[in-house]
Amino acid sequence: MALPSYTETRYRVWHYIYIAICTFVFFFLIAPLFVIFPLSFNAEEFLVFSEGMKNLDPDAFSLRWYKDMVYGTKNPWGLAAKNSFIIAIFATIGSIILGTLAALGLSSRHMPYKGIIMATLISPMIVPLIISGVAIFFFMAKAGLAATHTGIVLAHIILGTPFVVITVTATLSGFDHSVTRAAASLGSNPVNTFMKITLPLILPGVISGGLFAFVTSFDEVVVVLFLAGLENTTIPVQMWTGLREQLSPTILAVATCLILLSTLILLSAELLRRRSERLRGINR
Amino acid sequence: MSSETKQILTTDGIPLEVSLKKAEKKNKIKAFLLVAPLLLFLIITYIFPIGDMFMRSVDDKMVTNMLPKTFKAMEKWENLDELPPEEVYRGFYEDYKLLAENQQHGKLGQRLNKEKNGFNTITKKLFRQIKRNKIDESASIKEQINKIHKRWRNVEYWQAIKRTAPPYTMAKYLKGMDMYFAADGSIAQVDEDRRIHRILWLRTLEIAFFVTLFCFFMGYPIAHLLATLPMKYSNLLMICVLLPFWTSLLVRTASWMILLQQQGLVNDFFVMIGLVGDDNRPEMMYNKVGTYVAMTQILLPFMVLPLYSVMKTISPSLMRAGKSLGGTPFVAFWKVYFPLTIPGIGAGCLLVFILAIGYYITPALVGGASGTLISNQIAFHMKTTLDWSFASAMGLMLLSGVLVIYWIYNKLVGVDNIKLG
Known about the structure:
The structure holds 2 protein chains of 2 kinds. Helices cover about 75% and strands about 0% of the residues of chain A. By secondary structure, chain A is an all-alpha fold. Chain A is globular, with a radius of gyration of 24 Å. In chain A, about 45% of the residues are buried. Chain B is flat. Chains A and B meet through α1, α4, α5, α6 and α7 of A and α2, α11, α12, α13 and α15 of B.
């Protein structure tokens, strides 16, 4: 954003203030994430930068908290990670199936009561999590599903489907319906048409919705706190307990791993978005 | 044209209009069947349970079921300023005796004690009399009960029983607003120093409002920068917005807990530039400051993304045109650019406000006592006091507020226009 040479001084000054504000905001957004990295390699037990770390003394850094995360005695992280992945994967599959079907129906121009149904389907994303948590807890307790994996998976499907509905509906909004009609006129049955024509075209939207559903489930703590027993603990629940009781560096080691995971997910989501735009012929 | 040719027929001889309607209906059903599984799933596991929350929040059937004969007899109690007639006493005695046999009398005493202080003592006295078979059922029950304790001769206690008769009550909702039903059935305010809920509601609104404001003032410039920079730079900067968006909420809260602690980097920085002395580092966590800072950072992406997607569609030539027509950059911005971004501002602000008003995790961890919100109070009643009906009532009060904003959002922006990433 180079300024043209004829810019008056006061606008020049204002421009630099604007750049400074933006720099500050970007710093404010991203910097907190980077505090975690160095501290997770702290050799000491305190969550402050020791003198050794400030002087980059190699002895001040260690992998002991990562070792503790993996091998520590009475360590909850292994079970939590296993539960988190199992629950998130099943919740993602459920959200994708239900959400994609619903998005296909909603994108049809024949769909009756589109507005109110869409608002209902999106509502779990809007309703405060604490209320969703209370309501889902009441249901699961009655259905005998409290403190089971099934209950948590169902709860996360509720919270994850809005994302799939939104992303797939967005993908379908640029979808050329004449290709499915062409397939039908060539004698393909609807299921075959969907699998061979529609699905490959909307796949980027489906996967990016799936990623959202995965992250929602993987990161969800409020509802799980209501539903989970000791056996169903997940990574966020363990972090929540840890942060409430005492902030140990092991949590930072876990947090570092989570940041790496989210970076991976972000990169895949970005690649998918670009691919989807290319497929739909949107060039920005 | 004759009337026969007006009616166009399909090849099977059915009028075209009918055939089209049939096809239309078939398509409608097809579309609906695709949505049906999710809709049904949500109705059963989500919408109904919210209705269940409502039933729990107004439910007051306990006493109604415990004292059926009493309430039946009370229908004949006409002058409410005088003690009830013998039938009411007899009904109450019979109900109470049954409860005592089933070990349920303690619950009744506690519930009535909430309605009027001092009930627990006199029901216990009655219980002892019944246990020792001191009550002669052939004589007047009214006289015998009245003799047990002087409070039984006080009509206010009988009025209190009568107040618990309806199976439904709005009392929990009043409690959520620091009000209650007074003895005469009118609505009264809780004493000034005990109005905790109103403070929480106001604080929730206040924090949600200011967080939205901060997000707007921080999000607008960077959304503008992202929308106007060339693609290769903006893509890189976009990661700064998206990475926090994709990162676990707990991770981000944890990093703020590290930064804001008394020996944390923010305080180190303040000491370094000489803003505060090393010995009186300010407490920035476990109060409102912590809640504001952490929530603003966490919700900022939700402001930037809608703003960005609107700004991206505004052609840069509009600003140039404004300037070439004699407007200064400020005028051109204020009169041309800013009004065009209003849809994005609306979307971003409403989204951030909705999310902020129901926030739970971050205030619970960094908020301390002065930074907790209404959600934390709901969780407290769900988990600690186990007053689920009160938690439900407060949850529904919060929900009704959110639904109003959601409705406005839907009218202004449309839920199908929510963009992610």
